[in-house]
Amino acid sequence: MTSSPTARIFFSYARRDREAADRVFAALEAAELTVYRDTEQILPAEDWRGRLEGLIARSDGVLFVMSPNSVRSPVCAWEVEVASRLNKRIVPVVIADIGDALVPEGLERLNYIFATPAHDFDAAIAKAAEATTTDIDWVRTHTTLGERAEEWADAGCPRRSRILRGDELSEAEAWIAAQPANAPPPTSKHRAWIAVSRAAATRRQRSWLIGALAVAALSAGLGVWAELNRRIASEQRDRAELILDRGSQTANDLVFDLARRFGDREGVPQDLVRDMLERSRELVDRLAVAGEDRPDLLRSRAAALAEMSQTLARLGENEAALNAAGDALEAFEALIAADPGEPQWRMDRLVALDRLGDIRLALGLETEAEEAFDAALASARELAGQRPDDAALRGNLAVALEKTGQMALNAGDAAKARASFMEALALRRAVSGDPHKRDSRGVAVLLERLGDVALAENDLRGALAFYGRSLVAAEALAETAPQDTLLARDLSVIHQKLGDLLVTEDDLETAVVHFEADAAIARRLRQDDPARLEWARDLVISDDRLGVVRWSLGDAPGAVEALARAHDLAREVAADARSDRADKDRAARMAQKLSLAEAAAGDSQAALRTARTGADDLRGRVGMEGELAAALNNVAWFSLLSNDPAGALAAAEEALALDPEAEAFKLNRAHALMFAGDADDARAIYLDSANSDEWRDMVDADFETFRANRLETPLMTAVETALDAGGK
């Protein structure tokens, strides 16, 4: 395969930004990049959407010129959607602050390059050129093969024509295996085309190949799965085995033999888990292609995708999980349509609906999640009604009731939620004597859910009773399987809820015991699997709760210690490529909370360092200008308490530049001017809002704090006198 040192870039921009975009375009061409731009390449009478899509397909990447105009442009959003669907590398270059505008899906988690008037334009272009040309040989092959895969798909995915053969096929397979860490992944059409090509090349030896692939994938990957299982829960072990044992009885035996051999080994990083999932996906796709219309192999692929979807979701790969769950559901529904009398297909569809609902909910698609859960409940009732003595089907019905009950509780319908949870609890209790702990765990979880319902109805005694019963059950289960992360997480959550409830009851001494137990569990889960973002988020919340209740108990050193841990980890999570807006918000709040605690504990210098760190972390984060302004105001305040009026003035003025009308920012600027010796300008600000009671209260509170910290000037008394006189 050939490669080119010059990247071909599609240039996406809003027409209203033509002048600024022209400058970026010219700079990219000067950097010897081939830039496709629709104004030059599209004739007036052409099908512009088809032409643009063709240009994007032929490009090695897309440079998105980000501005308030482009993020609101339907055409630009469509271009980003096409690029995302084709798995093109997207490089956002910000030419103007977008404020609170909604960023198109596909851009939120990317690293932005800033080329605004406040930034170094040449440096920004250099970064953009570097970003678009990184791993260009591999990316160019992605483009070339992608175009051919699209042509193959447009031709109806033929099995004998338009496919790869000989060295081309071997090179394509080697290309997939050599994917660089930060390169855009192959599309599903890439993979399907290569898989069909391989199946055609070895059709006569299909049976042997399937067995060989299964053994090769299992041998290479089961160690990863088994090692993973030690850390991330026995439920994960069940899923891993489900994914890998579907191919044949020989593969099934091998799964259990190797699982026993690796059962006591420690876990491995998540990147290896993702690699294993990718290999498993390739295997099941090949099984399905090779099996043609065999229902057993088609079901094998669909069942594996259903289980993989939940594992991907637990790894934080929600978009990939959503695709896998959707593919699984589509496959099961096709099997049902082909053979409506087969009950297994309906049970499989039920599992796929449950997975799909969970993933949609995690992505914030609440209406779509509710649709999936309602469909799952209807299916579960039908199946359980047909075989009322089947414990597994009753368990499936209990799960479906739990999901719809939780959706009802989230929507404020406590009565419906209680009815669903009580019905599910009765089903769980009927089979909780079974040696499998899943039903016993279900009882513990449902008791917790009923506590949530009681709390929603302000029945604090009822909530405390249900939570207490759930805690007893969860502790008993966790003792039977100390390494089971699912049970440990359940125990952590119920400790949190009990702690929160006890805080509202002013029983802080008992609440702190629960928060400490919760934090200890969260810390162990985090230490066991540091790459799992979910555990890190949990630990941030746990240490935050612990710090707050310790402060309420008068344990200032203990509070600062816990809040500092939460702050450090929140920053780490916010910097992770998988983080979302909530993670960044949490990091900003933790910086503010920790700095306030440090200052209240008498360490203004530590508070100032924390506040500066919080502000520095927020700089450059698009859409978080309000949070940055608040953080800068904190820097100004703690600079004042640290007797640094110059630093306070700089921070206050930077905050005011972001929000010129904020009264608190104006007040800190006045304080900074006063302590810097500029009494006239400070006095003018102080007296500008003299008729406002709220302003007077703010001034009084701040002056009281300054005096408590031995910071005072004659102007303070003069301002107080003038404010008492109405600002005269």
Automatic annotation (TrEMBL):
The chain crosses the membrane at residues 208-226. Pfam families: TIR_2, TPR_19. It comes from the Bacteria. InterPro entries: TIR_dom (IPR000157), Toll_tir_struct_dom_sf (IPR035897), TPR-like_helical_dom_sf (IPR011990), TPR_rpt (IPR019734). Residues 5-129 form the TIR domain. This is Toll/interleukin-1 receptor domain-containing protein. It comes from Pikeienuella piscinae. Keywords: Membrane, Receptor, Transmembrane, Transmembrane helix. GO terms for biological process: signal transduction. The keyword Signal does not apply.
